Amino acid sequence: MQAPLFVALDAEAAVALRASMTERRIPRGSIIFADGEDGDRMYVILDGKVKLGHTSTDGRESLLAVLGPGEMFGELSLFDPGPRTATATALTDTVVVGLGHENLSPWLAGRPEVAEALLAALAQRLRRTNEAMADLVFSDVPGRVAKALLELADKFGEPVPDGVLVRHDLTQEELAQLVGASRETVNKALADFANRGWIQVDQREVVLVDRERLEKRAR
Ligand code: CMP
Question: Do strands 163-166 and 61-67 pair parallel, antiparallel, or not at all (unpaired)?
Fold first, then answer.
């Protein structure tokens, strides 16, 4: 498994850690846990995609992140006991392994590499969150759309003759929730990029044809 948590360990320890985790299969569209619930378990995605979302008091939804194989979630309530800070929903049929607090503690105490890998993942997330916050203030919607497409391509992209195919499995509404803008503005940006020949848009997927232009637009 290429998850940082396991890569940090030698093969024997990785197998032992994996053995202390419980596998769960989650059908597409199902909620893994909900915002506000008590939780003391973190998950690593083996296969599939998970969205982490928030509903505001007036009912509007926003997406904090879309995660794929190797990425972890649910660790905040594990390290800092308290309610879940987001709802985790499977965007596709998904397989995760879960690790409860009682099973993680001995690893943290006995294998500093595990703690280091978890801290590195948390640091990376904080960096990304800070950047996203700055983008909300300083970037326009097309810039944020370009950046979201590039991030999704880094996670889920596969080379195709025309460029990079990104099967993000998000509806246009969800893509807008991820960018933090209305569906109309996000659709307009996508249509504009498509007209310029930078991308090809399809249902729940997009092909990045001109990555360089998108990178310039995302800056
Ligand atoms: P927890 O609070 O237990 O449940 C929701 C999870 O969403 C949280 O742990 C993190 O794993 C994840 N999460 C929260 N905020 C972010 C964010 N800004 N980016 C990525 N993941 C997040």
Answer: unpaired
**From ligand 1's centre to the CA of 18, what distance in Å?**
22
Mind listing the domains of the chain with CATH numbers? 4-136 (2.60.120.10), 140-218 (1.10.10.10)
The overall pTM is greater than 0.85: yes
Residues flanking ligand 1, CB < 6 Å: 39, 52, 64-65, 73-77, 84-86, 125, 129
Interstrand relation of 61-67 and 31-33 (parallel, antiparallel or unpaired): unpaired
- Between CA 177 and CA 153 the distance in angstroms is 18
Give the chain's length.
Answer: 219
The CA 74 to ligand 1 mean position distance, Å, reads 6
Distance CA 116, CA 72 (A): 14
Tens of pLDDT along the chain (219 residues)?
Answer: 668 778 777 888 888 888 889 999 999 999 999 999 999 899 999 999 999 999 888 888 899 999 999 999 999 998 888 899 999 999 999 999 999 988 888 888 888 888 888 899 899 999 999 999 999 889 999 999 999 999 999 999 999 999 999 999 999 999 999 999 999 999 999 999 999 999 999 999 999 999 999 999 998
Neighbours of 36 (CB within 10 A): 13
User: What residue's CA is closest to ligand 1, atom 21?
Assistant: 65
Distance 162 CA to ligand 1 centre (A): 34
Nearest residue (CA) to ligand 1, atom 16: 64
